[in-house]
Amino acid sequence: MERKLIDADGHVLEDETLLDFLEEPYRSCRTQGGIIGPIRQVMGNVFPALDFLHLATFKRSERAFGGGKRVGPEEWVNFLEVSKFETAFLYPTAGLSMGNIVHPDWACVVARAYNNWLHERYMKRSPRLKGMALIPMQDVTEAVNELRRAVKDLGMPGAMLPSRGLPFDLGHRTYWPVYAEAEKLGCALAIHGGCHHGMGLDTFETFVPIHGLGHPLSLIIAFSGMVYHGVFDQFPKLRLGFLEGGAAWATFWMDRMDRSHHYFGELNLRERYKGPSMQKKPSDYVKLPNVYIGCEGGEDGLDYQVKRSGNGHFLFASDFPHEIGPEDILHEIEEVEEYVGLTDEDKTAILGGNARRFYNM
Question: How far from the centroid of its chain's Cα atoms is residue 187's Cα?
C-alpha cells in the first residue's frame, strides 16, 4: 500500500547567512572583524552551546551532516525526493539551545532573525519545507507576539519549545500566555530535546549514555510538569508534541506515574495546580487526542506503545541530517512498513496521518 509520508521532525543546519537577518546594531557587531563562518561559529555568535556535554563523536552514517558537506535547502529538497516524503517539518540545530540564552532582549532578536531566515531560505525554496518557529520564552509577552507573527505573517505551523534551559519547567504558569495564544491560533507547539545538562548526567565521562538518556529524560520532565501544573486541563485544545526522545518513554511514564498518583496526593491540587484529580489516572493524559510523541527507526517496542495508548499519538521522524543520510531513511521507513505488530491502520497513522493532525495540514 502506498502511503503519503510526512517527516515530522527534521533539522536545518544554521549557517553564516543567518547573521544577515540579525537586526542592527546587532548584525554589525556580530559580523565585524570577519567573524562569519559555518554552524559552529554561528552557534558561538548567535546561539549559546547546547551544554558542556556534547563532544565530536563518530557518526554511523557517512551521509549524516552531509558527510562533512553543507546541508542546505537544496539538499533538503533532494532528501524529500529520495525518501518520498510529501512534506518535512524543520527544527533547528544550533537553535536547540534557545532556552540557554540568558538575556531576554537577545532571545527576542535571535528568534526574529532565525524565523525570518528559516522562512526566506527554506520555506520560500519549497512549499514542502515547513519551518517551526523559535520564540523567546525568556520574555513571555514577546514570545506571544513572535508566535503570532510566525504563524500569521510567515505561515509557520507552530513553534518549538526547548525541553531544557529555561528558568521554570514548561508547566509553570509563567508560560501560560504562550499556551493560550497557541490554542487561540490553532497552531502546534513541539517540545524538543537537545540540551542534556541538569538532569543528573553532568558527571558522565562518556557521551553515548548522555545522548541516549538525555532526550527522553528531558521530555519526561517537560511532560510531567505540563500535566501536574495543569496545562492540559487549562488548555484542552492545545496540540503538544514531544519530539526526539523515541516512543518508549510513554508507557514507562504511564506505569510509574499511575502508581505514584495512586499512593500520594497533592495539597490544594485543584486550587493551585489544576492538574489531574485523584480520581483521574495520569496515563489518561498520554491518551489525550492533542498529545503527540515522536518515534524513530529501530523502535522494537513501538507496537506495545500503540497497544497501550492508541495509534493516534506517534509521529515518524527522520532527524535528517543529524544521525542519518538519505539512504538510511529508506531503511527506517521500511522498518515501520514491515512491522509485524502494527496494523495497516497503525502504519498509516504513524507515517503521516498523525502529523497531518498535529501540524493541522
Answer: 14
